[in-house]
Specification:
Helices cover 38% and strands 13% of the residues. With 349 residues, it is of the alpha+beta class. It folds into two domains: 77 residues, no CATH class; 258 residues, no CATH class. It has a five-stranded antiparallel beta sheet. A four-stranded mixed beta sheet has the order 8-9-11-10, with helices on one face. Strands 1-2 form a two-stranded antiparallel ribbon. A hairpin with a 2-residue loop joins strand 10 and strand 11.
């Protein structure tokens, strides 16, 4: 994540909508990858101007309706919603205030995920003959709404549609499930990074020349999925083996890919943040955005391992769990390196 600053020089953050020093409005420009300092120009047209560049913008419609998004559109755009919110197929019933708060949490994690995807130059639209369209559905079941007592919504991915159970936005619920499943890590951001990994398998690997080396590393993606998941959840969850980044990655080759993909995004985003805040720097020129793909993967991993040790030590000093409770073994390294090469060859950006 970039170290953003307001026009007045104050450090601001990706989620901010106003500078607390100069009171200028703030919004994220997903084309220029910057937080823009803004002043109102036309209240009737909801037009905002960046006085540094002279560009004019509008907030996403979800900013005005629910204060749920701070992404911007060019004032000339005919769209009402930003590039992130336009991907929503289904949102929960927002007449309930608790649903609004949970949905806002989901949207925040989704935007952070899409930031990483766009920084790597990856397409958000179909890029091969699989023709899968990226969409999001945020759904309720009996865990958050008694009206849906007879339904069960699983967080997952199918043909480009990423479904997230609204209950995952409840920190207490998420922690209970983490304990029940013996997981060392369970966050909203992690969910989005994992599920979008399935989407990019469809776009970048399936029906491409990468399919064969994928099978060599991860296994046969056509293995019966339902049977594999049933077997996984019927076993001891903590029975992790070193060939995988997590216990859940053992369940199926596609889950192994998605778990490894999520960890790749964890690494790349955190390394960029560490470099921006001068906590730790890769050798040579700073690796930012898609330029990180030009770095030797061994260098990325060496820097990441050193950084993760520091992050874990800092968390322990605060009495918190390790920020990165995982081990990169040789087989996991090979899978991460494979993803690095796939993303690097994607040809977008």
């Amino acid at each position: 994540m970039i170290d953003f600053h307001c026009q007045c020089g104050t450090r601001v953050f990706f989620r901010n909508t106003q500078c607390l020093t100069c009171q200028r409005l703030l919004g994220f420009d997903s084309v220029g990858f910057t937080m823009v300092s803004l002043r109102p120009v036309s209240e009737a047209n909801k037009t905002l101007r960046d006085d540094v560049t002279g560009k004019e913008f509008r907030y996403c419609g979800n900013y005005h309706d629910y204060n749920a998004c701070n992404w911007l559109l060019p004032v000339t755009s005919r769209e009402r919603f930003c590039v992130s919110c336009r991907l929503n197929k289904t949102v929960p019933d927002l007449s309930h205030s608790i649903n609004v708060q949970r949905w806002i949490s989901l949207e925040s994690a989704k935007r952070h995920t899409l930031y990483s995807i766009l920084r790597l130059g990856l397409a958000l639209t179909p890029a091969n003959n699989r023709n899968v369209k990226l969409e999001f559905a945020f759904l309720e079941d009996g865990r958050t709404n008694a009206e849906f007592a007879d339904t069960f919504v699983s967080t997952g991915h199918r043909s480009g549609l990423i479904t997230i159970n609204l209950a995952e936005a409840d920190a207490a619920y998420r922690e209970r499930v983490r304990e029940q499943l013996g997981e060392s890590y369970r966050t909203l951001l992690g969910h989005f990074r994992h599920e979008i990994g399935h989407y990019y398998y469809e776009l970048l690997v399936a029906s491409t020349a990468w399919r064969e080396p994928f099978e060599t590393l991860f296994g046969n993606p056509d293995e019966d999925y339902s049977s594999a998941l049933t077997q996984h959840y019927g076993s001891v969850q903590s029975n992790w083996v070193p060939d995988y980044i997590s216990a859940y990655a053992q369940s199926h080759p596609l889950e192994d890919w998605a778990e490894t993909w999520a960890h790749y995004l964890h690494m790349i985003d955190t390394l960029e943040t560490a470099g921006q805040f001068e906590v730790m720097q890769l050798k040579g020129e700073a690796a930012e955005g898609r330029s990180v793909l030009n770095k030797p993967f061994a260098e990325l991993v060496d820097t990441w391992l050193e950084l993760s040790v520091k992050l874990n030590a800092l968390n322990r000093s605060m009495g918190m769990r390790d920020a990165y409770p995982f081990v990169i073994t040789d087989p996991v390294y090979a899978k991460l390196d494979f993803i690095h090469r796939v993303v690097g060859s994607s040809g977008t950006g």
